[in-house]
Prior knowledge:
The complex is a heterotrimer. Chain B is α/β, with parallel strands linked by helices. Chain B has 11 helices and 15 strands. In chain B, the strands form 3 sheets. In chain B, strands 1-2-3-4-5-6-7-14 form an 8-stranded parallel beta barrel, surrounded by 6 helices. In chain B, strands 8-9-10 form a 3-stranded antiparallel sheet, with no helix packed on it. In chain C, strand 2 (about 60-65) and strand 3 form a beta hairpin. Chain C is built from 7 helices and 5 strands. In chain C, helix 3 (about 90-95) packs across helix 7 (about 145-165). Chains A and B meet through helix 3, helix 4, helix 5, helix 6 and strand 7 of A and helix 4, helix 5, helix 7, strand 10 and strand 11 of B. Chain B: Keywords: 4Fe-4S, Iron, Iron-sulfur, Metal-binding, Plasmid, Ubiquinone biosynthesis.
Amino acid sequence: xxxxxxxxxxGPVLYLWEGEKWRDFYFRIADEAPVSHVVIGExxxxxxxxxxxxYIAPVIERxxxxxxxxxxxxxxxxxxxxxxQYVRSLIADSPYPVEANDLSALALLEGEPHWxxxxxxxxxxxxxxxxxxxxxxxxxxxxELPASSINEIVSHTPGVDFEVLAFGRMPLAISAxxxxxxxxxxxxxxxxxxxxxxxxxxxxxxxxxxxxxxxNCVQTVSFTCQALxxxxxxxVGSGVSRFRLSPQDCDMVAVARLYNEVLHxxxxxxxxxxxxxxxxxxxxxxxxxxHGQEGAAWxxxxxxVAHGAxx
Amino acid sequence: xxxxxxxxxxxxxxxxxxAGADAVYCGFRDETNARNFPGLNxxxxxxxxxxxxxxxxxxxxxxxxxxxxxxxHEGLWYQAATDAVRLGADALILADFGLMAHVAETYxxxxxxxxVQASASNPDAVNFLVEAFGARRVVxxxxxxxxxxxxxxxxxxxxxxxxxxxxxCVMAEGRCxxxxxxxxxxxxxxGVCSPASHVRYRQDRGDLVSELGAYTINRFPxxxxxxxxxxxxxxxxxxxARGYAFEDPVSLDVxxxxxxxxxxxxxxxxxxxxxRGKAYVAEVVSTLRKALAATPEERRxxxxxxxxxxxxxxxxxxxxxxxxx
Amino acid sequence: MEFPRPLAxxxxxxxxxxxxxxxxxxxxxxxxxxxxxxxxxGEHRGKRYAFCPLDLPxxxxxxxxxxxxxxxxxxxAAAADAVVEGPLFLLLALLEGRCDAxxxxxxRSLTVxxxxxxxLALRNALDGCEVDLPRDLGAxxxxxxxxxxxxxxxxxxxxxxxxxxxxx
Lengths: 311, 325, 168
């Protein structure tokens, strides 16, 4: 089943990185990372746009020269007139496919080939088919979906490439309010871009000091890092053809190489997990959503095997 | 403006109608609606009776089918839509595009309302739902200010319903997986948030600790009132700061701004609280009914009374006020 | 509000069988008036619920699946999936559906131990019925009739106080 067709997508940088850091990150991805598609552009907060504006042209140029296919990301939450205008002009002017992350982008993209991001609610094939009829060619499914749903959606939606978040902290919520600014004594309208101080998110711990979540501006992400390595071959078997790596503040080239090796069967998933923990030690791994459990859970393959052996 | 009132049980439904609701919204006793709490909601027979009761008194019934269809089990939602239409629901409140498409195609005459869970927060989004599925009304997310709403109203081709009283989601509704991250159960998929099945209270050195799944959501010293561990209303540590990271335990109340909402072009005011008791529903609905007809001075007195009733509970105007952000 | 001590004290000496007999009678009359009460419990119907009024020397255990109620003096004897303890007036307000679900968890004067979901289901089921204690129990209370009418009075006065402890 589509055995030859399995590639990696680099998702948009969700965090606010300094312009030059952001540029250099993408330059290196262009030169070294085995990803076929790069989704790029501000997704979380419209106030941040000016940080990357000066660098977007040279980054795109470098990507295209390296043979990467570009997809423009859109804002996850559009409420202001300014934000609506931004999404409209981005879609009108983009020479590349655009990924919809909210309903306004979805509306504006009707009739042209586009992508659907993980922040649009696709929970069943009926919805995926509605989107496909409107021009969606690639759908990155929401991280909350269990394998059973993924399987069902993919097998009942012909003509669409499906993608699953395989690496990175999971986007869990977005708010009109900025908890990140609030944590540092500001409100959103006068946030002073404090989220720039936390390029990998600001950890939220419980009162019993358990690591739990991380703040990224108006977005809340998981503290754990989604790691679908053992699950890759099963997903490929279900017909999923793309796997998304969501940038964290770590060596993402190494992450891409590792996932590429495991995806093509050159590295065993268990070895891959061990190496993944070395590349990104900041966050414990999780894969609970995929297994129909709480998203923060880690379901070890070894345990499943052992359980099977005992049964 | 219409007053849209919650009912988790037939008893609460009758109280809401008697107290002056223009419409009551409710759901079936399963995962097809976002208040899928144990012991709540309506059987088919109960819904039929409720619709008849409302109709005799000139009130409408809206049926919420506002979760997202579980892949492979869409039949449960399709059947719920069929039954709600058959029983005479005046509107279906939907969030899932697949379900909206199905209803628009199968029951083109049925009035379709866009649930807050669909997260339509701007004119392009709303007009898409109007054009694609024939939506007649949109329930706006609690992420907009009143001036955002006024601007939106001028650019869209359907009615607007907004939440004015009751619980407050801090996160954009329908786009939050915090609950399932901690418990495996989510509003979108299971119709529950921070479910009671995963709640535990324990005593620790004189504190009452509330837990959700494996996580501590709050700690209450002996002299402090304890709260239910709704995830986004917990106390957490962030760097050196300790406190309510997302939102204090407050509820929404913007009834003092109903004139501004009317001028903004809002058609209907919605009260949150299908999980609340019938006594609460009766009191809130009757007071807000009176407030709608009252002069501004009388309204202040009425609302003060309502606030007195929820003594100890703080309220906020949430995102309707720009500074909340 | 605590249950008045002069009323509570005799309950420690009245034979338990007499109390249980009266309670069973009231319970039966309640179920006769509200036959659908336990239907709402769904999967929680098979569980045991204990009610422990802190101001009475008694524990009441309800088993919806058998439509049975048991009265005991010992907490230990009252094995249950979900236990709620608090002042009698709050427990009775809960029975009448006058106490908000959120308030149930919110108020520290009412403590739920064990299966939180089951207790929430019961609370919602009770709220869904229109239980009116003075009306429903009235004459059926037998020897406890004066006690019932007095507590019913107290509930009426305190009913909305239970609503004060709201949450969202």
